Amino acid sequence: MNEKSNKKMSNSRQNPFLPALNGIFTTFRGERNFRIHVVAALAVVGLATWLNVTYTEWRWIIGCIAIVLITELLNTAVEALVDLVSPDYHPLAKKAKDAAAGAVLIAAVFSAIIGCVIFCPKLWSLFFG
Ligand SMILES: Nc1ncnc2c1ncn2[C@@H]1O[C@H](COP(=O)(O)OP(=O)(O)OP(=O)(O)O)[C@@H](O)[C@H]1O
């Protein structure tokens, strides 16, 4: 049995959540954008609690936070893979990285719109109502 198979066997015995948690923490440590999104998510949760949003609004907020963090993690995975297989310039490497970055952008813009729809009227009536 070679070293790779041994590694696979010992990995299969460990807690299946460990590699996933490791991926999240490694991304948090290494990717500035992921850290910004985590801080923004915590700020939004604080604001939503303060403004006493409804259950339906909480569902939208939690969905938006999840979609942004998930796309950031997938973007990081694509970047790492592309850097591994194509460290030099290649049009397909560009296509993969740009598409992954586009997914993050769509998730962030969608979340910003949902945030405005939920928070702007509440903040407006709080300060000017
Ligand atoms: N190997 C490559 N071949 C072709 N284009 C590349 C390659 N690597 C990066 N690029 C181009 O440069 C852009 C930036 O790539 P980079 O790896 O710096 O990621 P990034 O979007 O800046 O993310 P981060 O800041 O999180 O590292 C990509 O979106 C892509 O257009």
Characterise the protein shown here.
With 129 residues, this protein is mostly helical. The protein has a single domain, classed as Helix Hairpins (Orthogonal Bundle). 88% of the residues lie in helices and 0% in strands. The chain is built from five helices and no strands. The chain has helices spanning 3-13, 17-30, 32-50, 55-85, 91-128. It is elongated and about 55 Å long. The chain starts with a helix and ends with a helix. The model has no long low-confidence stretch (mean pLDDT 93). Bound molecules: adenosine-5'-triphosphate. The site of adenosine-5'-triphosphate has 12 residues, from helix 4 and helix 5.
Q: Summarize this, please?
A:
The protein has 129 residues and is mostly helical. It has a single domain (23-128), classed as Helix Hairpins. It has helices at 3-13, 17-30, 32-50, 55-85, 91-128.
Strand content: under 5%
- Total of helices: 5
Question: How many domain regions?
Answer: 1
Beta-strand segment tally: 0
**Which ligands occur here?**
adenosine-5'-triphosphate
Query: CATH architecture, please?
Result: Orthogonal Bundle
